[in-house]
Structures are given as C-alpha cells and as structure tokens.
Amino acid sequence: MNGLGAVVTGITVVVVLVAKFAEGAWITLLFIPLAIVLFTVVRRHYHSVKVLTTCMVPVNTASLSQPPIAVVPIDRWSNITRQGIEFASRLSTEVIALHVEPAESSELLREDWQRYVEEPFRIAGRETPKLQILPSPYRFIIIPIIQFILDLSKKHPDRNIIVVIPELVEDRWYEYFLHNQRGRLLEWTLLVQGNERIFTVSAPWYVGERA
C-alpha cells in the first residue's frame, strides 16, 4: 500500500509540474530536492548522535565516593538566596556562595551571611557554606562566575561541580521576562564553555505560594 501511494503521489506531482509549471509549480521542483537533502542531513545527524551516545560501559561506582561541590551565585540575602543555599546544602556538604563585586550590598551581605547562614550551621554542627566575593572592576557579573567555576573544576578534576541557580517564579507568565535573565545566561554559558563534570540545577522560589 505504501508503494502504491508513493507511485500515485509521484504521478500527481509530475502532472501538476507539467500543467502548472509556468504558473509557479517550478517552485515545487526546487523544494522537493531541497527537502530530501534536508531530511537526509537531519537523519544522518540523529544517527551520528545515537552512535556517539550509545554506551557499553557500566556505572563507575568508584567516582561515587567523591561528593560534588555545590556553587550558588547570589546577589543579596533574600528568600530566594536562602532557598538556594538550603537546596545546595542537601546536595553537598561543601557549598560555595558566589557574590560579584562591586555592589552596594556587599558589606551588608557579609553581615547577613554571618547572622543567617554561619550561625545556624554552626549551631547545627554542620560544615558552614563559604561566601566567596569575586572582584569585578568592570562590573561584569557572568564572566567572573564562569571563570571561578571553570577554575574550580580544574582544581578538582576528580569531583563534579553542581551550580545551583536561585530563581524567582512570578504568578504571571509575562513577568518571567523581567527576572532570571542572568540565571539563564549563566546556564547557557556553562553549557557552551563547561564540561561533563559541571551540572546546573534550578532552585525556584514561587511568589504565588507566599501571596
């Protein structure tokens, strides 16, 4: 049936081309070969990806003994930051919060960090997350964070890096475009410049649940 359908379709195309060639049917004559070439290229791409990703190697259980390092980019102390730190602390005992200077809130952030993070962790007897202040004389935000993460990955070639990106989730979909653009840019840049040991994960804080 498929063969018969293909033959009938082919005959129809030929008839239309001959009868309506001067009226624009010649476009079809160009489109069909281009479509065939496109489909062939796409099929070859999927096949090559399948070949490259086919795995015949078992899970490396030796690497599971090395816990990941969790990195959390933050701008100030907030509910969004708090949730990101809490989530990162569930993933790893070694958490590094990254804050890029210059920023007016840097000194205030240090005070808040000691009060709201260091003291509770110390009381709980757990390893305290580290606050890392990154200098940025040209007021770049993403570049210093990316460089720190890449350097951290080189410094610890036997460990994975989990980048926890705190995000604000608004009630209305159109308000999404007003927030989280740096987070999306950071995630995209890490996918381009990172490696297979660097992972990104979102820590969403929903406004609607607190309204």
Overview of the structural elements:
With 211 residues, the chain is an alpha/beta fold. It has two domains: 52 residues; 146 residues, Rossmann fold (3-Layer(aba) Sandwich), CATH 3.40.50. The protein is built from six helices and five strands, in the order H-H-E-H-E-H-E-H-E-H-E. Helix 5 runs parallel beside helix 6. It is elongated, with a radius of gyration of 27 Å. The chain starts with a helix and ends in a 5-residue tail after the last strand.
How would you summarize the topology of this molecule?
Layout (H helix, E strand, L loop, with lengths): L1 H19 L5 H28 L15 E5 L5 H13 L3 E6 L5 H19 L5 E5 L7 H14 L5 E9 L11 H13 L4 E9 L5
Helix pairs in contact: 5-6
In summary, what is this structure?
The protein is an alpha/beta fold.
Terminal CA distance reads 60 Å
* Oligomer status: single chain
The CATH class of the largest domain is identified as: Alpha Beta
* Helical proportion, percent range: 40-55%
CATH homologous superfamily of the largest domain, by name? HUPs
Question: In the CATH scheme, what's the topology name of the largest domain?
Answer: Rossmann fold
Radius of gyration: 27 Å
Largest sheet: 5 strands, parallel
Class from helix and strand fractions: alpha/beta
Number of strands: 5
